[in-house]
Amino acid sequence: MTQLRAHAPGRVNLIGDHTDYVGGLALPVAIDLGTTITGSASTGVIELQSEQLGSRMHLDVPVNQQIGTIEPSWSRYIAAVAREMDCREGFTGTISSTLPLGAGLSSSASLELATALALGFDGSTLELARLGQRCELAAVGVPCGLLDQLSSAFGREGHALLIDFATTSIEPIELPGDIEIVIIHSGVERTLAGSAYGERRTACERATALLGPLADCDPNALDRIEDPVIRRRARHVITECQRVRDAVAALRSNTIETFGRLMVESHASLRDDFEVSTPVVDALVEQLIAIDGVHGARVTGAGFGGCVVALTRPGAIHDPTSFTGRGWKVRASGPASVELITD
Ligand code: GLA
To answer: Which of 144, 192, 309 to probe ligand 1 with, by most ligand atoms within 8 A of CB?
Structure first.
């Protein structure tokens, strides 16, 4: 029988967080951890077994239930994709994921994209990313930007992606061969829906209304914002976008120490101005940057716990699991894709 296998990578953001939803810049990498859905088309029903969670979902299509009431809760992402695609045919199979869930590595975006490909999505790569973004809102009410979905949809082996969210342009930037990307789970679980993500986004939108697009804003203009909290949030976005530009210049000139320093500055900005770090995450970053051969480290993704990413000399961190029990060395990987498999 002909089956198909859809795979979508997670992502780690090297620098440029909380910039996507206000037209800023980011430099993520699609990684070799992701979600894989294997199975075949069926009639009028989607049935998927999650290997990681050990639970099964069953959903009649077309979907006409309220997404927020569907159980198990992970299947809301599937239901949102099926409804968004107006799926009528159905699918039976299994989901397996090598990503830690809710850890800032885009497990939900990779599930959305793998589901869409398994259900026969046939639009453009950009449309695939936008579909995933709409489903995130529909499934769990998170008004996310496009960072996660674009990273998964446009991943390139050996490259980071310079994304300009003002124009949705994506430029692959080659990574040097003599570095390792190491991810350490802080042990602090996070969920975007339960966090202050939406509040941060609103603050940035208020700052944009006052100053215009933050990515191109002169930091001196920050004096025009009276509210000290909004001012700090805007300062993060303005300085973070500049750090992304500087980080890309550092990659191009192979000055990886500069790249590392920018990562550490980015972490400080997310901690102090954007206030999305936690003491445990801060301590982990400090511990990592004290290691010989670690160029830089920072919280990655939305924050509020989750993972820290470090850029290191090869071998500088021998065992990524030695810090908290959960850690990975990852490689920059290719994009979400689907293939037919015959057995
Ligand atoms: C989450 C969101 C993204 C982005 C990051 C922070 O991963 O899904 O859109 O806002 O947080 O950079």
So the answer is: 144
pLDDT at 343 over 70: no
Domain that holds residue 301: 176-330
164 is an active site residue:
no
Neighbour count for residue 235 (Cβ, 10 Å): 20
Assess whether 15 and 59 both reside in one domain.
yes
Q: Domain count for the chain, please give it.
A: 2
Closest atom of ligand 1 to CA, residue 145: 9
172, 199, 215 - which closes a domain:
172
In a domain, 70, yes or no: yes
Residues at CB less than 6 angstroms from ligand 1: 17-18, 20-21, 144-145, 147-148, 301-302
What spacing in Å lies between the alpha carbon of 254 and ligand 1's midpoint? Answer: 27
Do residues 85 and 191 share a domain?
no
CA angle 190/152/199 to nearest 5° reads 40
pLDDT, one tens digit per residue, over 247-275 is 999 999 999 999 999 999 999 999 999 99
What are the two backbone dihedrals, phi and then psi, of residue 237, each rounded to the nearest 5 degrees? Answer: -65, -45
Tokens of 215: 């990515």
Dist. CA 306 → ligand 1 center (Å)? 12
For 86-131, the pLDDT digits (tens) are: 999 999 999 999 999 989 999 999 999 999 999 999 999 999 999 9
Give a yes or no: residue 339 inside a domain.
no
Closest Cα to atom 2, ligand 1: which residue? 144
Rounded Cα–Cα distance for residues 53 and 16 (Å): 31
Q: With pLDDT > 90 as the criterion, what percentage of the chain qualifies? A: 94
Asked whether residue 13 falls in the same domain as residue 155, the answer is yes
Q: 143 and 287 share a domain?
A: no
Under a CB-based contact definition with an 8 Å cutoff, are residues 95 and 50 in contact? Answer: yes
Task: List the CATH number of the domain containing 36.
Answer: 3.30.230.10
Per-residue pLDDT tens digits for 211-253: 999 999 999 999 999 999 999 999 999 999 999 999 999 999 9
